[in-house]
Amino acid sequence: MNPFTLVKIAIRALLRNRMRTFLSVLGIVIGVAAVITMVAMGEGSKQSIKEQMTAMGTNAITIMPNQSRRGGVQSESTEMLEEEDVIAIREKATYINGVSPMVSVGGQAIVGNNNSPTTLSGISADYLKIRNYEIEDGVMFDDEADRMAKVCVVGQAVVRNLFGGENPIGKTIRYKNIPLKVIGTLKAKGSGDFGQDQDDVIFTPYQTVMRRFSSTTSIRQIYANSIGEGYAAKATEEIMNILKERRSWTKPTDPFRVFTQEEMIQTVTSTSDMLSLVLTAIAGISLLVGGIGIMNIMYVSVTERTKEIGLRMAIGARGKDILLQFLIESILISLLGGSIGIGIGIAASEIIKSVMNWPMSISITSVFVSFGVCCATGVFFGWYPARKASRLDPIEALRFE
Amino acid sequence: MQTKTPILSIQNLRRDFKMGTETVHALRGVSYDIYSGEFVTIMGTSGSGKSTMLNILGCMDRPTSGHYILDGEHTETLKRDALAKIRSQKIGFVFQSYNLLSRTTAIENVELPLLYNPAISAAERHHRAIEALKRVGLEGRMNHLPNQLSGGQQQRVAIARALVNDPVIILADEATGNLDTRTSYEIMMIFQELNRQGKTIAFVTHEPDIATFSTRTITLRDGLVKKDVINETVQDAKEAFEALPPPETFEEED
Fold first, then answer.
1. What tens digit of pLDDT does each residue of A14-55 get?
2. Domain count across chain B
3. Do the beta carbons of residue A199 and residue A157 sit within 8 Å?
């Protein structure tokens, strides 16, 4: 029998039981749509995390005190970072091309009647290149010349919120009653950094924060920048050695935690990989259930049409013809379900993206793979019922009521 | 009309069925020849082996031993697919319960056997189906569905389906069993007409009056041929039909 006729016969058989066909198709639609949407969700979050991390600077290294905890109680002997550590790293480290402390104060930034709960970050000039910031207008403060100076550089969100979009250079921001003169603005970086607006920043020399705002000598974090990709490990080791050397450290545990952006990316992506794997697996199970639905319906169909099969065989159909007839039916169900499922999956991803503002990335691979899985489902789950049909004895089948 | 070489030859045919530990001998050594142009009725009570006989004649079953030569071809050693091919090209089946595909028009039902013959194009399939329906007088019912047709009309569609592949023999299995007398005779008229046009027919029945329309009657009993007689006086189905008392109520048939 020619393939066109076979398909025609299959379509007619499927149309004869519209509701049943619809439900079998629906099973596959849900399975495929779920796979595509889930993969889009997983891929989307992975990509957006990667983008954010890259925006933060791929070569960035973060140094933090090692807050070893025992039974939830922070141990007394936590080593604190100091300005001297920053200086030591800057002078001695060879795999580093920038280093900056980070000390911050929370509070309200006030300009006239406007105020904004922006954190005041005390940094050194290197911070800009470590975190990929660029000056848009004005100048960056200088570590030596502006030591403890009441100056600041602000991000675009601050320009918008506190200055109504006007050029803020030369104007003053009051922070905890201390006036800070704006000497520069930063280029817009966009949101990111785990939901935190990277443009909503006020940078000031770290000595200004340490002496004028929080009167402390300890530094919460030190950021550094390795000289290039692949040097992160060496840079990390070097920094750790410098820090230990300064303290004549002999304990087996490290006094600080040093982690690189690459490690961060790896940690975060492996978490999101895991998440998208779980999501995809769940969606895959629903596709499997859809396939079992096809198999079930094909078994019912074969039993119900035993007499028809007997007749077809009596008038000359070979086992192969019957096998193909039923196989094509199940393949048609899964192809139809697959196509609609892909459509719905893509639409759902787009809707989630635009309505809920989630990062979604429709992967072409997932579309092809789920379509392929779909065809395979049709063949696999249609095979046994179809073979059962093809092996019927025409005499028995004709007698079937 | 008989030629020297038989169209169908059965030699010492046996068919055993294993029913648990017992073996049932449905056919115990049947031999006969059917010649081209014959209209043979195969009679017998239930259990006589006539259904088994028909299944073997129809190439749906194989004998345990013996020979069955159809149109010069030994069929007893053929595989499933080869038997299917013989069914598709050399045999036309007419069943007691018509066995039409529901929700499928008359013409599509008739086209069905040709679907399994790749040598026949869609256009030829259609053309031959129309011709077959004309021969059974149903050219006006081609696009009707089985449930829109009377029993007699459905059986005529089934006969057209048996004709469409131009088989060497038409096998009918109690083809009038579900029909009343008038309609039965109408169906027999069609069979007689086809026989006059040269079709070889083997008609299984247990009704003696149906046998009177055939040219020869083979009677089976306990798996053996009990009688094999040429009917000297073949009753004309048309005359028999006209001799029937008129129906009290008009049937749905036109």
1. 888 899 899 999 999 999 999 899 888 888 888 887 777 777
2. 1
3. yes
What is the spatial distance between Cα A223 and Cα A125, in angstroms, rounded to a whole number? 11
CATH code of residue B114: 3.40.50.300
B195 occurs within a structural domain: yes
Round to whole Å and give the CA distance between A261 and A225: 10
The residues facing B205 across adjacent strands are B43
Q: Do B113 and A316 touch (CB under 8 A)?
A: yes
- pLDDT tens for B149-170 read 999 999 999 999 999 999 999 9
Four-point Cα dihedral A58, A61, A62, A65, nearest 10: 160
Q: Which helix (H) or strand (E) holds B25?
A: strand B22-35
Structural domain contains residue B253: no
At B201, phi and psi to the nearest 5?
-130, 135
Q: Name the residue in chain B with its Cα closest to that of A310.
A: B99
Which residues, numbered 144 to 173 in chain B, qualify as contacts with chain A under a Cβ-Cβ cut-off of 8 Å? 161, 165
Q: Give the neighbor-by-neighbor strand order of the sheet with B201-205.
A: B91-94, B169-173, B201-205, B39-43, B216-221, B224-230
Q: Rounded to an integer, what distance in angstroms lies between the CA atom of residue A162 and that of residue B187?
A: 100
CA contacts within 13 A on the Cβ side of A206: 24
Q: ipTM of the assembly?
A: 0.91
Q: Which of A9, A315, A398 sits opposite B87 (nearest CB)?
A: A315
Residue of chain B with shortest Cα separation from A316: B88
Neighbouring CB atoms inside 10 A of B245's CB total 7
| Amino acid making up residue A376 | A
Structural domain span for residue B180: 6-243
Interface test with B, best of A7, A311, A321, A398 (most B CBs within 10 A): A311
